[in-house]
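About this split. The held-out portion is used to measure sequence recovery: a designer receives only the structure tokens and must propose an amino acid at every position. Recovery is the fraction of positions where the proposal matches the reference. Here is one held-out target exactly as it appears in the evaluation file.
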């Protein structure tokens, strides 16, 4: 048992370590990992500074007309929604048996070729 342990220990010491390849082979991966670490470190270290800046957003209240349209000099853009109806075509459906094994005679049916949808248009509204 002592000889076996000594043999295994000597093989472990004398065996060559695995080669990692050339130094230039994975240089861009190292650069990417380093850049990611720098960006992550900066965001973690300087997170508290962002919260201390005063708000730079200023709220301007505009007077509103009687009919709730904004006061303006020449006009403004308004989004107008319009429903575009679906398109259908009429085709002949021949007689057949349905799922309940009942005979359904042939007839014309409507098939939707394009579904209906909402369309948004920008409309210029001029002031009075």
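Reference sequence for scoring:
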């Amino acid at each position: 048992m002592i000889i076996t342990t000594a043999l295994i220990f000597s093989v472990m010491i004398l065996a060559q370590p695995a080669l990692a390849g050339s130094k230039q082979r994975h240089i861009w991966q190292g650069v990417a990992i380093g850049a990611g670490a720098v960006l992550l470190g900066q965001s973690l270290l300087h997170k508290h500074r962002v919260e201390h800046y005063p708000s730079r957003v200023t709220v301007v209240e505009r007077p509103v007309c009687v009919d709730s349209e904004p006061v303006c000099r020449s006009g403004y853009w308004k989004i107008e929604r319009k429903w575009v109806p679906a398109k259908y075509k009429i085709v002949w459906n021949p007689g057949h048996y349905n799922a309940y094994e009942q005979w359904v005679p042939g007839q014309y049916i409507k098939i939707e070729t394009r579904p209906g949808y909402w369309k948004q248009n920008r409309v210029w509204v001029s002031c009075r």
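Annotator remark: Residues 75-126 form one domain.
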